[in-house]
Amino acid sequence: MKTSYDPAAKFELKVSDVELQRTPGGRQLMARIYQPQGSGPFPTVLDLHGGAWRRKDRLAEEPMDRAIAASGVLVVAIDLRLSEEAPYPASVQDANYGVRWLKSRAAEWNGDPAKIGVYGSSSGGHVAQLLAMRPRDGRYNAIALPAAPRLDATVAYVAARSPISDPWARFQQAERMKREGMIENNRIYFNPWETIHEGNPQEILERREPVSLVPMLIMQGALDDNVLPAVQEKFAAAYKAAGGVCELTVFEGSEHEWVAKPGPQTDRAREMVKAFIARQLKA
């Protein structure tokens, strides 16, 4: 029997790390499990980290992951391959595998695999969008899961903070700002370079490709000069025009990674994600 989700609930957490998969290069990718201590089964969310595709790991969004999990959600944050290990679409393949793996394992941590959601930050938001829009794409589901070969990578919803919804627009912004590091991050990940258009959520919608349009929440900082608010507004409009539901909220006085610091806008973002999850579970 499923536990009804109350975003105002408070649970103690058990936190553990388990092996996810080993990369072709030999690195062990891990998953961190934030498990509420209660009767369950609990709704389940997969967290995809940011880091400009080049840095960070499953610990990047730990404060947000803990906040969501403590309300009664099984949150599982996974490592993704980094761009210098393997360029696009490797990280999307890892996320696709992660969804299928989590569906097969959620019950072990008292999670409900029936309606899995995704939380993604910055480049992890970009990965989350591609994952949700193309859950059965042969480019993305290339990593086999022998233990559960029939599972697919469909998800129920996506919540994203500062997602790179249009990598080409972000690259152009980096050039305008003369941010050499950001320019380099794009060139390393999108290799060959034309994949910056193929793997571009905004351009996928503009090309009117057949996609899955799950409900999406985008939280965007008004002061972000990395991913511009206008870019998110354009994406949200295109997503809605294609028939999807996209809730966009711009956080005043907030930069790209505002949720990394305690404060009223960080608290607001956490409450917004939990409320969004509650709405999707009731839908």
Task: List the topology elements.
Elements: E1 13-22, E2 28-36, E3 44-48, H1 62-69, E4 74-78, H2 90-105, E5 117-121, H3 123-133, E6 157-161, H4 167-176, H5 180-189, H6 195-198, H7 201-206, E7 216-221, H8 229-241, E8 246-251, H9 264-282
Parallel strand pairs: 3-4, 3-5, 5-6, 6-7, 7-8
Antiparallel strand pairs: 1-2, 2-4
Give a brief description:
The chain has 283 residues and is an alpha/beta fold.
What structural keywords apply?
Rossmann fold
CATH superfamily: Alpha/Beta hydrolase fold, catalytic domain
Q: Report on the biggest sheet.
A: 8 strands, mixed
Total strand count, please? 8
Determine the structural class based on helices, strands and strand pairing: alpha/beta
Poorly predicted residue ranges: none
Quick one: overall form? globular
Notes on the protein architecture:
The protein is α/β, with parallel strands linked by helices. The chain has a single domain, classed as Alpha/Beta hydrolase fold, catalytic domain (Rossmann fold). Helices cover 34% and strands 18% of the residues. It has helices at residues 62-69, 90-105, 123-133, 167-176, 180-189, 195-198, 201-206, 229-241, 264-282; strands at 13-22, 28-36, 44-48, 74-78, 117-121, 157-161, 216-221, 246-251. It has an eight-stranded mixed β-sheet, with helices on both faces. Helix 1 links the parallel strand 3 and strand 4.
